[in-house]
Structure formats: structure tokens, C-alpha cells
Design a protein that fits this description.
Number of helices: 8
Strand order of the largest sheet: 5-2-1-6-7-9-10
Helix content: 10-25%
Radius of gyration: 23 Å
CATH architecture of the largest domain: 3-Layer(aba) Sandwich
Distance between the termini: 57 Å
Structural class: alpha/beta
Low-confidence stretches: 254-262
CATH superfamily of the largest domain: Formyl transferase, N-terminal domain
Length: 313
């Protein structure tokens, strides 16, 4: 089948490799343009760009599409059977959505209509969902509103974080897109009920608020690492929390509602360190100071004091 592939991050790479390996004729790979990266701010191609070059596929990386008639005409001239889109990062204008014979098929990392939008994996973990999945969707002008072709489910375990779920969904998406192209299933409209949205994440989303429950903070740590990362601030310094686990409030500490200083939300209860939360306790397991390497809690505390009784902001 004559295809264009449109994707940018690691999530999209397994699908590109699967389509190439299955013998589809990928006539163009569209990616985000190279961005400055690292200390030297060197222009660096994205993961899909690098994979496409490795596979010997032609790469296009326009900065925009919606108001670029020349790019839209070039896309139409490819004579595509279909375009496969996976976390591309640019909105496709209507002319491009209509250009391929079978339209544009999107690999979306959620069970639509739950978690439409930019960060569906993180949103599912944050919400405490027991499962998520991949939906192959026929694209239309709305935000992830198009009819569904296929879907597959992936459980979210109690200690699963974004990296593990990301990899499982990326692999499943690669399998499902091959099926969708081969089987040409009848599109099914998305249900009108159960619609939720997963907005784009910002660094501030990673701030830990100790008045939240330990269970909610644990989900935030698992969902938002490695990016944007979770953190608290102490004495003007940002401390990243890379790994943590929720625990019940120790019997020796009164509930936070009783408001003893030692159990107020944000109080350091011991040298584990365990931090009192609005409900329960969060034990910090792996931490990182700015400009330093990541450390387990014991090593971190040998160089940074968080004495019991201190209340973190």
C-alpha cells in the first residue's frame, strides 16, 4: 500500500518500523523539524526522523501545514492510499485529511472517547484508571473525534509508570495499524458519553502538593516521570522526586486533621524519608537536586538534610 507516515516521538517508531517491515511503500515520512537540544543546543532530529533515515525513507519536516498551500499540494501529489499519523505534533488541514484514498488513520494512545488530547497516557495514570489502550481512528477535523476502526487494551498495574505503559501502547499500536490497513474495518462512531480530555502538560503540573493524598501523589510521580517530572521546593531549591511509594500514616502519628506539627501535610516524619500527606504518607525513594545525578533516598540524605519535624512547602 502507498503510504505517508506522520509522527515524531519514540511512541511512533514501532509503527513506522512495522509498516516498513510489512512491505508497505512509504513514500514520505513527515516529522517535526529538528530542534536545538543538549548543552550545545545542536539541531537534533526527532526519533521518527532518525528511524526513517536508518530505513532509507525520505523525510519531510515542514514547520507548518495549515496555511502552507504548497505543502498541502505536495502531499496531495503523493497519490497516497492512506496516511498513518502517530503523535505527529501538527494539525492536518482538511485538504490533507481528504487527500489519501482511505484518508488519514491515527494511532491514539487511549480508549477513545476517554482521554482525547495531548497527554492520554499520563492522564490515565493520574486518574487511577485500571486500564488504557490504543484506538485506531479515522481522522476528521475535530480533536480525536473521528470514527474508530480498531482498539486494544492494556492494563495499568499498581506500580506502572508512563515509560512502561508508553512502550506497551507503542507496540500495540504497531500491531493494530497493520490490521487496520489489511482488514479495512467498518468505522464506528465514538460514543457520546464518557468523553474526557488530556490537556498538554506543563512543568508546573509536576509540583507535588502535600495536601493531596499519598495515593494521588504516587500516581503523579508515576505519570509525570520522566517528563515534565515531579518536584517540591525547599529553601528555594527544586528537588525532583523520581520514585516514591504511598503508605498508611504510621500509628505513632496522628491524622493530619488533628494538626500536630509532626503530621501536618508536608511534615517529614522520619529519615526514610516519609512525608505526611493530606491522607496517608509518601515515602520518597529516589531524588535529584538541580545539576546533580539521581540518588536513592539514603544517599541523597547523606548530602541534603530533611530532618524529622521539618514541614516542606
Amino acid at each position: 500500500m502507498r503510504l505517508a507516515f506522520m509522527g515524531s516521538p519514540d511512541f511512533a517508531v514501532p509503527a513506522l518500523r512495522a509498516l516498513h517491515g510489512a512491505g508497505h511503500h512509504i513514500v514520505a515520512v513527515y516529522t517535526q523539524p529538528p530542534r536545538p537540544s543538549g548543552r550545545g543546543q545542536k539541531e537534533t532530529p526527532c526519533a521518527v526522523h532518525r528511524a526513517a533515515l536508518e530505513l532509507g525513507l525520505p523525510v519531510r519536516n515542514p514547520a507548518r501545514l495549515r496555511r502552507d498551500e504548497a505543502e498541502q499540494a505536495a502531499f496531495a501529489a503523493l497519490g497516497l492510499d492512506a496516511a498513518v499519523v502517530a503523535a505527529y505534533g501538527l494539525i492536518l488541514p482538511p485538504a490533507m485529511l481528504r487527500a489519501p484514498r482511505r484518508g488519514c488513520l491515527n494511532i491514539h494512545a487511549s480508549l477513545l472517547p476517554r482521554w482525547r488530547g495531548a497527554a492520554p497516557i499520563q492522564a490515565a495514570i493520574l486518574a487511577g484508571d485500571a486500564e488504557t489502550g490504543v484506538t485506531i481512528m479515522q481522522m476528521e477535523e475535530g480533536l480525536d473525534t473521528g470514527p474508530m476502526l480498531l482498539a486494544g487494551r492494556v492494563p495499568i498495574g499498581p506500580r506502572d509508570g508512563t515509560p512502561a505503559i508508553h512502550d506497551a501502547l507503542a507496540a500495540q499500536g504497531a500491531t493494530l495499524i497493520l490490521r487496520a490497513l489489511a482488514e479495512n474495518p467498518v468505522p464506528q462512531p465514538q460514543p457520546e458519553e464518557g468523553v474526557t480530555y488530556a490537556p498538554k502538560l506543563t512543568k508546573e503540573d509536576g509540583r507535588l502538593h502535600w495536601t493531596d493524598s499519598a495515593a494521588a501523589l504516587d500516581r503523579r510521580v508515576r505519570a509525570l516521570n520522566p517528563w515534565p517530572g515531579t518536584f517540591f521546593t525547599h529553601d528555594g531549591e527544586t528537588i525532583r522526586v523520581l520514585q516514591a511509594v504511598p503508605e498508611p500514616l504510621p500509628a505513632s502519628a496522628a491524622p493530619a486533621s488533628a494538626a500536630p506539627a509532626s503530621a501536618a501535610p508536608g511534615a517529614v516524619l522520619d529519615d526514610a524519608p516519609r512525608i505526611a500527606c493530606g491522607e496517608g504518607v509518601l515515602r520518597l525513594q529516589r531524588l535529584q537536586r538541580a545539576g546533580r545525578g539521581a540518588m536513592d533516598a539514603a544517599a541523597f540524605l547523606r548530602g541534603y538534610a530533611l530532618p524529622p519535624g521539618m514541614v516542606l512547602g
